[in-house]
Amino acid sequence: MTRKQIILGHYLGGVNHSTVWSDPAAGSQIDFASFVHAAQAAERGKFDFFFLAEGLALRERDGQIFDQDVIGRPDAITVLTALAAVTEHLGLVATVNATFNEPYELARQLATLDHLSGGRAGWNIVTSSDAFTGGNFRRGGFLKREDRYVRAEEFLAVARQLWDSWNPDDIVADQASGTFLRRPDAGAFDFAGKQFTVNGRFTTPRSPQGQPVILQAGISSEGREFAAGGGPDAIFSPYHTLAEAQAFYRDIQQRAAPYGRAPKILPGASFVLGDTLAEAEERHREISRAQITGRGAQILLETVWNRDLSGFDPDGPLPDVDPTPDAPLFIQGRARIHPDPFATVAEWRAIAEANKYSLRDLAIHVFSRTEFIGTPTQVADRLDAFVQNDGSDGFIIGSHLTPTGIDEFVDKVVPLLQERGSLRTDYEGSTLRDNLGLTVS
User: Fold this and answer.
1) Cα separation of 362 and 301, whole Å?
2) Cα separation of 295 and 289, whole Å?
3) What local confidence, expressed as pLDDT, does residue 225 receive?
4) Would the CA dihedral through 136, 137, 138, 143 be positive or negative?
């Protein structure tokens, strides 16, 4: 039986609760050397791409900046363009918001990255209806939530028209004069829609892979339809149990099939290794408590309760107060992923009671993203089984330690996946699209 090839991306921490800032081995979140180390390690492990998230505003809690945000987050396209010079095969994927940018400018930046990297650029398209974040931009948080994907879909259509405005033969060599000639209509575009009306000439010739690879995260009905109908080449999945992941996988593929599409499905994942399962589990407990401190646990739960929980003991029971979803946002700039706070809190209370969890224990249980714990062989077995059973097509691998945490995975797990034929031993193609087995949409 032919084995599915596992797609691997590496996600470098940044502004989040999963990075262990206090570890003596932790490096800078903004020094270029950190990005170089992580990207080159991923390339050594034959990963498909290196992925950077986006942070457009410093988050606030009750009007004060989050402690985690003091390190900031640099612009992803700028960082990835620099990394293009120190890598050869690794895809370079930037998260960029379609709500607060303009198609011509962003399409030009991504096309430039694609050229400079030899066809390795990718765009994780995200949206926002957050007026807090929007305050940093000219139009502010002007979009209603239901309009986010309307704009994103049209934004992507404009970008693709721009990328396709040059044909491969638009520049031809004139042997007589020894010069290169550009065909008269090269780069011409004219788009008129409800969101954008743009026309002119695109300055960047067609890139080595035709178009940057498009990725997207979205599990709402609107997000799934956008993913299926003509949006992304790959989708980030939030599901980590095999049954839930398989259901999401089937749903996306069934929605996409009428369009002749089969987007790749990629959940995020972390790992903890040990010489024995018991050692890995103990190490996981230590890392989890370093990731989510008592104060951090209070803040994470405040995103759902929408109220100050600093007066509740992290090592005591869950707060005995109800959430206040209709009050002004207590946490600003963090995505709200729980649409029904009352139902979420009821579910969490049941989990805490059944497991005798403290407030902090519950936060670790809910917010920890470490799914693969064990010896290198056990982790390789579980990763491979998840993909071969259509839970996903691969994973975005993160680590609690920046930037060297990925080294352990590359050195100990990757060779085992390669031995069983589930992961390449070398890059087959010259572009990100080639290595992912994708055609231009």
Assistant:
1) 9
2) 11
3) 77
4) negative
Gap between the Cα atoms of 352 and 361, Å rounded = 8
Q: Checking DSSP bridges between strand 91-97 and strand 121-126, what pairing results, if any?
A: parallel
pLDDT digits (tens, 9 = 90+) for 284-323: 999 999 989 999 999 999 999 999 999 999 999 999 999 9
Considering the domain architecture, whether residues 393 and 354 belong to the same structural domain is answered as no
* pLDDT tens, residue by residue, 51-107: 998 877 777 787 777 766 556 678 999 999 999 999 999 999 999 998 888 999 999
**Is the Cβ–Cβ distance between 401 and 29 less than 8 Å?**
no
**What pLDDT is recorded for position 170?**
65
| 394 and 348 part of one domain | no
Helix%, strand%, coil% for the chain, nearest 5: 40, 15, 45
310: left (phi over 0), alpha (psi -120 to 50) or beta: alpha
Q: For residues 382 and 180, which has the higher predicted lDDT (pLDDT)?
A: 382
Distance (Å, whole) CA 206 – CA 353: 58
Q: Is 1 domain-assigned?
A: no
Nearest to 123 by CA among 234, 228, 198: 234
CB of 155 closer than 8 Å to CB of 191: no
Number of domains in the chain: 2
Of 171, 173, 205, the closest CA to residue 187 belongs to: 205
SS3 (DSSP) at 99 = coil
Asked which of 3-7, 61-65, 325-329, 417-421 is least confident by mean pLDDT, the reply is 61-65
- pLDDT value of position 340: 92
Contact 266, 7 (CB under 8 A): yes
129 burial class (0-12, 13-18, 19+ CB within 10 angstroms)?
middle
Q: Which structural domain range is residue 315 located in?
A: 293-366
CA distance 189 to 194: 17
Q: Is 7 helix (H, G, I), strand (E, B) or coil?
A: strand
CA-CA-CA-CA torsion sign (81, 87, 88, 90): negative
322 and 308 share one domain: yes
On whether both 190 and 320 belong to a single domain, the answer is no
Structural contact between residues 85 and 127, judged by C-beta atoms closer than 8 angstroms? no
Q: In terms of domains, do 193 and 213 share one?
A: yes
Question: 96 and 245 share a domain?
Answer: yes
